[in-house]
Amino acid sequence: MSALTLRIDPVASPTRAAAAVAALASLPESFRRTDDAGDVVVIDGADGWAGRATAAARSGARALLVLDPGPAADADLAELADAG
């Protein structure tokens, strides 16, 4: 089994990034950190998270983990849903 690549949103605080890594470590998968697109992308839920999540989805992310998402505009959420 090959490891899935994991990219952490550069906006994520060190505390949130560490929490995401700890949560993913509890799963029965292997993850390898990358600065590229990533199979799994961890997005900080701060302002603009929906746009960053949409960009990650369009770049080929297979899964998104949004940490503590704040409010997002309906149009941004619709765009994220359309990105697949």
Q: How many beta-strand runs? A: 4
Largest sheet: 4 strands, parallel
Indicate the mean pLDDT: 89
Low-confidence stretches: none
Q: What fraction of the residues are assigned to beta strands by DSSP?
A: 15-25%
Work out the helix count. Answer: 3
Structural class by sheet pairing and helices: alpha/beta
**What is the first-to-last residue Cα distance?**
25 Å
How many structural domains are formed by the residues? Answer: 1
Shape: globular
- State the share of residues found in helices, binned by percent: 25-40%
How do the helices and strands follow one another from N- to C-terminus? EHEEHEH
Spatial ordering of strands, largest sheet: 2-1-3-4
Rg to the nearest angstrom? 12 Å
Topology record:
Blueprint: E1 4-8, H1 14-25, E2 31-33, E3 40-44, H2 49-58, E4 63-67, H3 74-83
Parallel strand pairs: 1-2, 1-3, 3-4
Helix pairs in contact: 2-3
Can you describe this structure?
The chain is of the alpha/beta class. It has one domain (4-83). Helices cover 38% and strands 21% of the residues. It is built from three helices and four strands. The chain has a four-stranded parallel sheet with strand order 2-1-3-4, sandwiched between helices. Helix 2 (49-58) links the parallel strand 3 and strand 4 (63-67). Helix 2 packs parallel to helix 3 (74-83). It is globular. 24% of the residues are buried.
